[in-house]
Design goal:
Pfam family, one: Y2_Tnp
Largest sheet: 5 strands, antiparallel
Number of helices: 7
GO molecular function: DNA binding; transposase activity
Shape: globular
Helix content: 40-55%
Order of helices and strands: HEHHEEEEEHHEHEEEHE
Structural class: alpha+beta
Strand order of the largest sheet: 7-1-4-3-11
Distance between the termini: 61 Å
Number of strands: 11
Mean pLDDT: 83
Keywords: Plasmid
InterPro entries: Transposase_32 (IPR007069)
Organism: Piscirickettsia salmonis
Low-confidence stretches: 261-266
């Protein structure tokens, strides 16, 4: 009975992944007609591994991450008195379907003046972006804790028992250099759409990475980011499904942040 049920669930999962891929292709085709034709910068906002469990235990906090990442760049644009275009995609998964909270963001490397007649170039730097992002995340967690709304992940419950121990835990994370990755700027909006489709509509696992299923075990391949080598992950069917479905957004999850400049740049 359990084998039959697990096989049925596995087939449902693989069908869902195929539908996800089709949705991505359709989305890319539609967006090629919409996005401004200009240069784009792609940025990945990550956080220390120790903080990710807080967003699994407090999934409602995921609603804030895309906006916080976008606000870092919007503040810079506001100082320059321009309006920029931004898309974000929140991911909770790593290559092995581990819980790894991060935000993929694409931003125009320029913006419209207030009068909407002039296009001004703008450049964002890691030196200014990282500290602003780091402060935003730590402040989000501190505020949630102080207002009694933060659920402490089970692995930290013996260590974090009051505000003093919470600060003792989070202060070292705040003092670290967080990884905010700036990819090479893309001159074409078509390349930008491909990037957005890959991240905004991407499923946690593609069917092509599934290597084996015998009714009891699932084996899939993944890239170990530390070594750069391809590895295999083996689990029971139910463990695999449990590992996968935790990355499906809840009903209360808000859509990714998007601000599109409503003109076409020649």
């Amino acid at each position: 009975m359990q084998t039959h049920q697990s096989r049925h669930l596995y087939l449902q999962i693989t069908a869902m992944l195929l539908m996800w891929k089709k949705a991505t292709e359709q989305w890319i085709a539609a967006q090629n007609k919409l996005l401004p034709k200009c240069e784009y910068q792609h940025i990945t906002f990550t956080m220390p591994k120790a903080l990710c469990p807080f967003f699994l235990a407090n999934r409602e906090l995921l609603n804030h991450l895309s906006r916080l990442a976008a606000n870092v760049l919007l503040k810079t644009a506001k100082k320059k008195k321009i309006k920029i275009g931004i898309f974000t995609a929140l991911h909770t998964f790593g290559q092995s379907l581990n819980w790894n909270t991060h935000v993929h963001l694409s931003v125009t490397r320029g913006g419209l003046s207030k009068c909407k007649t002039t296009w001004k170039k703008v450049y964002f730097t890691k030196k200014k972006t990282m500290p602003m992002w780091r402060f935003s995340i730590v402040n989000l967690l501190r505020t949630a804790y102080k207002t009694g709304k933060l659920v402490i992940p089970h692995q930290y419950q013996n260590h974090i028992t009051d505000l003093t121990s919470f600060n003792r835990f989070i202060n070292p994370e705040y003092n670290k250099l967080w990884h905010v990755h700036f990819a090479k700027a893309q001159p074409s909006h078509h390349q930008n759409v491909d990037y957005l489709g890959r991240y905004l509509k991407r499923p946690p696992l593609s069917n092509s990475r599934l290597l084996h299923y015998d009714g009891k075990e699932v084996i899939f391949r993944y890239i170990d980011r530390k070594t750069g080598k391809q590895e295999k992950h083996t689990s029971t069917t139910f463990e695999f499904i449990e590992r996968l479905i935790r990355h499906i957004p809840t009903k209360s999850f808000n859509s990714p942040y998007a601000q599109v400049i409503n003109i076409l740049i020649a």
